[in-house]
Amino acid sequence: MSENSQADITIIDRPQEDAADKQAKNVDILDSLLSDKVIQKSVKTSRGYFTIRYPSGKDRLKIDQFRALRRHGIPAECFDDVANTNNNIWSTLDVAVVDGPDWYKKIRENNPVWSWEEGPDEELILELYNLVCTFRGEITEKIRKSEFGRIAERSSVPDAATPVGNGAFSGLTNGPQG
C-alpha cells in the first residue's frame, strides 16, 4: 500500500436535501393525482434522456383514440398480435413521452405531429416503452399503498383473550369463572 493512498479519494460533506426534495418525498401520490397534478420522470435510454409522464385517465383515453385512428375503423381482431402490439406501443409513447434529447426536440419542432410510429430505431422504442411500463407500475404500486382517504381501522380484540387473573374485572371480561 502506498503512502499516498488517501490522495486517491476525496471526502466531501453530504449535500443537504432541499425543501423541494423533502416535499416530494412527503406528498401522497393519490392526493397529487386527484388534485390534477402530473407525475413525470426523467429516464435514461441508449439515445439520451427522456421525460415520461404517468398517464392519467384522460391520457389513457387519448392512447385508445390513437390506437383506433391507426386501425382506421377496422376492429382490432382483424389485426395480428404484432400489429396490435406495435399500435399500443406507438400510441402509448406518443402520449407518455413529453420531452427528450435535442434530436427529439428538433424532430418535434420540425414536425409537430411526428409519431413514434415513424421512429426507425425499434430497440429504442422498446426500451422507452419498457421504461414507461415500469414507471407506470411503480406509480400504480404507490397508489395502492396510499393512505389518502382511507378510514383508520378499528382495533379488534382476539376471540380467545386471556382474563386478568382474579382482578376486579376478571369475571366480566370472559364470563363467569366456573
List the helices and strands and how they pair.
Blueprint: H1 19-26, H2 29-34, E1 40-45, E2 48-53, H3 57-71, H4 81-96, E3 97-99, H5 102-110, H6 122-145, H7 170-173
Antiparallel strand pairs: 1-2, 2-3
Radius of gyration computed on alpha carbons: 28 Å
Query: What does the overall shape look like?
Result: globular
How many strands?
A: 3
**Segments where pLDDT lies below 50 for 5+ residues?**
none
Residue fraction in strands: 5-15%
Relevant terms:
three-stranded antiparallel β-sheet; mainly alpha; globular; 3 strands; 178 residues; single chain
Structure overview:
By secondary structure, the chain is mainly α. It has a domain at 55-144. Helices cover 46% and strands 8% of the residues. The protein has seven helices and three strands, in the order ααββααβααα. It has helices at 19-26, 29-34, 57-71, 81-96, 102-110, 122-145, 170-173; strands at 40-45, 48-53, 97-99. Strands 1-2-3 form a three-stranded antiparallel beta sheet. Strand 1 (40-45) and strand 2 (48-53) form a beta hairpin. The longest helix is centred in the last third of the chain and has 24 residues, at 122-145. 12% of the residues are buried. The mean pLDDT is 82.
